[in-house]
């Protein structure tokens, strides 16, 4: 009975417009976090390559990096073909000291 009265008066028991406003704001924030300039994405890719090359030999030409977003979060997705694992990294570090 109360739900009917709330509906007639424009009040929704689920939060109504307040709920939808929060949801819209959340979606805008997720989208804003997913927006990144091509320069910044390229710089991120270069930095990843620099670090990963210490541990692995990779196929840089086939490497893919992008942001993936859904309703709740943004994820950095990196597909990096590994040609070989560097087993000599520890020795390289010790030699440089």
TrEMBL record:
Q: Which InterPro entries match?
A: MinE (IPR005527), MinE_sf (IPR036707)
GO terms classed as biological process: cell division; regulation of division septum assembly
Pfam families attached to this UniProt entry: MinE
**Signal peptide limits:** none
Q: Which UniProt keywords apply?
A: Cell cycle, Cell division
Q: Which family does it belong to?
A: Belongs to the MinE family.
Q: What does this protein do?
A: Prevents the cell division inhibition by proteins MinC and MinD at internal division sites while permitting inhibition at polar sites. This ensures cell division at the proper site by restricting the formation of a division septum at the midpoint of the long axis of the cell.
Q: What is this protein called?
A: Cell division topological specificity factor
Organism equals Syntrophobotulus glycolicus (strain DSM 8271 / FlGlyR)
The gene is: minE
